[in-house]
Amino acid sequence: MAENEGPVLVNDLPMTFQVKYLGQSDARGLWGIKHTRKPVDLMVAAAKALPPGQVLPLVKLTITVDGVHLETIKQDIKNEFEHMAVFFNIESISYGVQDLVYTRVFSMIIVKDSADVKGLNPFECHAFVCESRNAARRLTYSLAAAFQDYSRRVKEMQTAEIDERPPSLKKRFAIDLRTPEEIEADLETEA
User: Fold this and answer.
1) Is 51:118 a contact under the CB 8 Å cutoff?
2) Which tens digit of pLDDT belongs to each residue from 90-116?
3) b/e 20-57 (16+ beta carbons within 10 angstroms → b)
4) Dist. CA 19–CA 41, nearest whole Å
5) Could you tell me whether strands 93-98 and 174-176 are parallel, antiparallel, or unpaired per DSSP bridges?
6) Which of 3, 108, 115, 121 is deepest in the core (most CB within 10 A)?
7) What is the distance between the alpha carbons of residues 39 and 169, in angstroms, rounded to a whole number?
8) Residue 128 burial (C-beta neighbours within 10 Å; 0-12, 13-18, 19+)
């Protein structure tokens, strides 16, 4: 399923992927590859430095129209990671991308609730190693479909009732559907 080519439509959701959880690291901004590159590099370096016999946790990552659900998959290998089950609401995800250096890695930026932050960095980057480059691409397309549905729902809500919120309080999110090569070429032209 994850190896299929082509776009993922809202009707294809939910989609489930079996991935390795690289971890989380602070991100410096809301969206853009420039805010996921350094955290991904740090997480990959930490994964490579794991002691022999210790492996990254295997997780079931499910993308639905409501968000992303992660749950660890039971492994026989003794692991320092405990059972994890977490849900990231689509409203809290601001960005998702297939990494341009590690093309099997998918990362996303989560915006923590302002009540939880209290002066701390509100952005965290979560990264996952997929079974293949195509699976990472498919995961990115799946999140794009969820964003598309969320955008449609927000627009419907705004037309049903006049949105009284100032523009600065409206939710912003992005998904980067360019290939790693296209992202790299754009970064080179910006430099």
Assistant:
1) no
2) 988 999 999 999 999 999 999 887 655
3) bbbbebebeeebbbebbbebbebbbeebeeeeeeeebb
4) 18
5) parallel
6) 108
7) 27
8) buried
